[in-house]
Amino acid sequence: MADTLESTTFEPEPAGPVRVPALGPVGMLRWAWRQLTSMRTALLLLFLLALASVPGSLLPQRGVNPIAVSDYKAANPGVSPWLDRFSFFDVYASPWFAATYLLLFISLVGCVLPRTGQHWRAMRGQPPAAPRNLSRLPVATSFETSESPEAVLERAERSLRGSRFRVVTGDGWVASEKGYLRETGNLIFHFSLVVLLIGVAWGSLGGVKGVALVVEGEGFANTVTQYDQVTPGLAYDLGSLAPFSFTLDDFRATYEAGPVQTGAARTFEADLTVIDEPGATPRQVTVQVNKPLNVEGFKVFLVGHGYAPTFTVRDARGRVVFDQPVPCLPQDGNFTSQCVIKVPDARPTQLGFTGFFFPTVIDGGGPVSYFPGAENPEVYLNAWSGDLGLDDGISRSVYTLDTEKLAAVKAKASDGAPLVVPLKPGQTFTLPDGLGSITFSGLQEWTTLSVARDPGKELALVGAVGAILGLLLTLFIRRRRVWVRATSGADGATVVEVAGLAKNEASGVEADVDALVLALAPTRTSEPEPNDRESDLRE
Amino acid sequence: MVDEGLAKISLELAYSAMAVYTAAFIGYAVAAASTAGKRDDARVRADLATVGAGGPGAAESGAVVAAAEAVPETAVSDGRFPGQKAAGIATALTLLAFVLELGSVLARTASVQRVPWGNMHEFTLTTSTVLAGGFLIVALRDRSKQVLGVFVVPCVLLALGLSVTVLYAEAAELIPALKSGWLVVHVMAAMIATGAFALGALFSALFLVKERSDRRLAAGEIAEPGRVARLLPEAGSMDRMAYRINAFTFPLWTFAVIAGAIWAENAWGRYWGWDPKEVWAFITWVVYAAYLHARATAGWTSRGSAWIALAGFGTLMFNYFGVNLLVNGLHSYSGV
Predict the structure, then answer these.
(1) Do the Cβ atoms of B140 and B52 come closer than 8 Å?
(2) Using CA atoms in the order B36, B38, B40, B43, what is the torsion angle rounded to 10 degrees?
(3) Could you give the 3-state DSSP secondary structure of residue A320?
(4) Within 13 Å of residue A293, how many CA atoms lie on the same side as its CB?
(5) What is the pTM for the complete model shown?
C-alpha cells in the first residue's frame, strides 16, 4: 500500500524497531524531531496530559480556592511542602504541566505542517493512475460486457463525475478520488487547537480579573484601590483600567420557602447605576447570575452576597462615633454571618464588637438561623474595650478583631461572664460602666462582584468552533478512490474491472464500486448465488 | 410552580418502566440461552445433514433431514437465528418500557416546568432513556443485534434504578446559576454524549470478549467459544460499531465542553477555571482524542484502542459519580 492514500495517514511510521542512526548531531536532531512529531509520541503525550490533569482535580488549587489550600497545608504538614515544591497546588500553572502541553503542541505543529504541504499538493494534483492489477485491491470486482472499452470508460467517467469524484483518464483506465475535505477538516481541527491555545495565552497575559465587595447604596469605581483582590495578567497595566463606575442601588435575593429544598436560592438580582466613563449619562442595569454587566470591554458578574447590618455607636460622651453598614461574612447555608465592628473614634477607650448576625431567628429559640432570607433578623454581640491596635502601621483585615490589647466587657452583676448583647432592628443596648451604647439601626445587603477582562476569549471561541467544524468534516467525510480498467478480451467481449480503496474505516467504498458496476454492467440475468447447504438439504 | 402530582406520576411511570425492562431482560436472557445452545445444534445438524445427503444410506439421511427440518428456527442461512422469537418479544417489551420511561421524563418535565436535567436524578433518568432509545435504533434496524439487549437492558435498568433511589431528588425549581438557556444546550449535549459513549463502551467491551475468544480458539487454547462469546456477533462488526459511535460522539462531547465554557464565561466570568468537573471533562476529551489517534496509527491494534475507549468511558463515569458526589466544586448540583 506504499503508493496509496499515504496522505491520509499521519506521519509515515518507520517500519520495525527504530534504529538510532549514526549521523552526528544534525542527524540526531532530525531523528529527535521525527520522534517528537510521530503519532506514537503524540499518543504518549495525550496520555501524559490526561494523567497530569488528574491531581489538580483531587488536591485543592490556589487558582480555584486558596483558602482550601491553606486548610489542606495545615491539616497535612508532612507532605504539603513536597507537594508545594512540585507545584501540586498550582497544577495547571506548573512547569511540568506546561511542558506536557507545549510538547504536545510542538508535536502537533510538526506533524500537521508537512501534512498541509502534502495536502496542498494533493488538492492541486490529480488522482493517482490506476494500479496495474486491480483485482488485488481490497474491494474489486469484474464483469464482461459487449460494449467497447472506450464506451465503458467514457460512461464510467461520466458516472464518477456525476457522483462528484475528481476524475483522470488514461490508456484503458479511469482513476478517481473523492473526499479531500476529510484531510482539510483534519488540518482545520489541529490548527484550530493552536488558535485556541493562542487565545487562552493572550487572554491570560493581557487580561485582568478582580473581586470587589459592594454594599447597597455604595459605589465602585474601576481603580486598583477599590478591589479587594485583583490579579492582572503579566502584560496587563493596572494603570490602564477602564474608568467606569457604578452604584449598587439594590440587591435582591429570594429563597425557596416551600417544603422541598427549603432555603435554596431562587433568584439573585442587583440593580446598578452605571457610568461608562467620566461624564457619561448614567444607565440603569439589572445584573443576574447568568446576565453579567458589559462595560468598556469588562464584564461584571455576581459571585456572592451577604448581609450588612448598620450599627450606630455612641461613646461615653454620647457622641455618634460610628454609623455605617458592617458587611458580615456568611458561615452557613442559612447565612449565619460573622460580624466585626471596630470603633476607633470612641472615647475614652476604643470599642470593638464581635458576634453573629442571624437573618431569621425563632423568638426564644436562641442564636440559630432557620432561613437565609431576612424574615426575623437578630444579632448577638460581644463587646470589647481598650486598644484596637490600628495605630502600629500594620495592615489588618477588617473582618478580624485583634483582642490582644482589648478587655472583654463583662455583664453587670454577674461573676465575670462576658457580656452578650442581643439586638433586633431598631433596638439599642447601653453598655455597662458608661462606655456608651450600640444601636442595630438598619439592614443592608452586600454583593461580591467579579470584574474581568479577557481579550483572548473571542479568539479562543474561534479556535473552539473551528475545531468542531474540522472534526465534523474529518469524521464524517469519507475519502476514497475508485478505478476502472476496461480491456478487450480474447472472445471479443470487454472485460471491465472496478476497484476501490479507502484508508479510513466505514468508508462506504463498497457502495461506490457497487453503484458504478450497476451503472456500467449490462442488465444482469444471473440468479442469486445458491446456498450450498440448503441445496444439499433439498436434494 | 412545581406540580407534585405530576412528579409522582413520573416516578410511577419510572417504576413501571423498570418492571417492563426486567421482563424484557428475561426475554433477552431466554433468547441468549437458546441462541447459545441452538447455534451449535444447528451447526451439528446441518453438518450431519450434509454428510447424510452425500452418504450412501438414503433412509438414514432422510431421518436426519427430517430432524433438521423439525427445528425450523435453526435455519441459519436465511439471516434469522435461533431464539429470535424471544429476542423479538424482548425488543417489543423494551420498546414499551422505553415509552413508559419517556413518559416519566415528560411528566417530570411538566412537573418542574423546565428541561428535566437539573440534578442527578433527572439527568440519570434522561440519560437512561437516551441509552435505551439508542439501543432500540440499532436493534430495530439490525435484528441480529437484538440479542445484545441482554447486555444493554441491565445497564438501562441500573441507571434507571439508581435514578429513582439513591439519586432521587424531589421536584423543585432551579438555583439561579442553572437558570440559563445554556442549560438546555450544554446539558443536552453532555447527556446524549454520555448515553452514546456508554453504548460505544459496551460494544468495545463485547468486542474485547469476542476478540479474546477468537484469539484463544485460533491458538487452540479452547475447543469452543464460551457462553458469552457464542452470543456475540462477529468481532470486527462490533469493533466498527464501537468506532462509529465513538467517532460520532467525540464532536458532540467537544461541543458539550465548549457550550459549558461559554456558559461558564457568562455565569462565572471565566470560560475555563479548572473546576474538577471541567478537569475531568477535559481528561475524557483527551482520552477519546487518543482513541481516535490510536485508530489512525499503524501498529495499534483494535484491541489496544478498545481499551482506550473503555478508559475514556471510565473517566466519564468518574466525572459523573465521583466528581458530583465526592469532590466539592462549582458543579455540585447533584441534589443528593
Answers:
(1) no
(2) -140
(3) strand
(4) 27
(5) 0.81
